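SAMPLE LOG
Freezer: B-3
Tube label: C17
Construct: single chain, 181 aa
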Amino acid sequence: MNILPDYILLKPTLTLCMICLCLFGCTSVPPTQYQAALENGAQGYSHIQLSDNQYRVVFKGNKSTTENDVKNFALLHAAELTTAQGYNWFTVVESDTDIETKDLTRVGPSTMKPIQGETTCGLLGCATPSSPNYAGGEVTTKQVKENIMSSLLITMGKGDPKTPLEVFDAAQLAKNLRQAH
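STRUCTURE (predicted):
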């Protein structure tokens, strides 16, 4: 006879379930935030100076970072870099977004299926022999996003641009993008 109330017996089960939920919740990767890349190829923003007023600006995010955020973070760094270099506008000469993927292969469970033999009948009855047959598991491969990167080739300028509709005001763009994120 059980003298403990039922809800006390459920506590270990509930505790175990809560621990499992916490562990599974921790397996998701948070998106890359706007930050400097700590080394070449790391997640975050970086730039390379190509000439006095030309730079290659890159932002690399992880698999949880949206394509839109990666593009906006590259533009934000371009705007901040432009004002830091003493310029007030920039134009994007070239842009590229690259999604790095990896193959994820899964193998399903294997099965044993009997092979039915030919039925034979004798004095004592009929028999149908069978033998086991191994059937391998299903193998599936799919590509999953690993990282995403936006690269901009920018040219910086001062004063009034010759083609004002084709340039970004660096200070205004940086302000707008910081408010959005």
